[in-house]
Amino acid sequence: MIGINGIFIGTMIAYLTTIYTADPIVLYKRIFNKKAEEYYLSCIKSFAAIIIAFVVTNYLCSFITDIGYGGFIFKALISFCIPNVIYMIIYFRTREFRFYYMLMRRSVKPSYRYILRYLKAKIR
User: Fold this and answer.
1) With b meaning 16 or more CB within 10 Å and e meaning fewer, what string describes 9-27?
2) Most exposed residue of 20, 35, 70, 122, measured as fewest CB within 10 angstroms of its CB?
3) DSSP state of 29
């Protein structure tokens, strides 16, 4: 009777009732031996970070009245930089942030050395 819309509605209901509610409880309780509240608190923290980044970015972009290429580029820079700075402020003390920071440092360092070696060879 509802057709394809019924499939989408049923899928959303299934996700909301099982994947986002029951699965974390079972996973955290039986595998991680932790309370599921940690998972839900991290979800709330992530959601709050997204909302804060959206509000601040939207607020700053509202001051740009130029509708040309310059305004677009400036809004794009704000939209790229501000959320990343906000996420870094919120997450920089977490273990996950340190892990990804070290991964990035290890991958950038060799390419940085290669570029320096290349530039030194060009100067000589």
Assistant:
1) eeeeeeeeeeeeeeebeee
2) 122
3) I
> Two tokens at 75?
């809004």
Q: Are 22 and 30 in contact (CB under 8 A)?
A: no
Using a cut of 0.85, tell me whether the model's pTM lies above it: no
**What does the alpha-carbon distance between residue 64 and residue 74 come to, in Å, rounded to a whole number?**
8
Please report, for residues 1, 37, 82, 102, 110, the alpha-carbon distance to residue 95 in angstroms, rounded to integers and kept in the order given: 50, 18, 22, 11, 24
The answer to whether 85 touches 51, Cβ cutoff 8 Å, is no
State whether residue 66 is helix, strand or coil: coil
CA distance 79 to 73: 10
Any idea which residue has 């509802």 for tokens?
A: 2
Find out whether 90 and 51 touch, Cβ atoms under 8 Å.
no
Is 64:82 a contact under the CB 8 Å cutoff? no
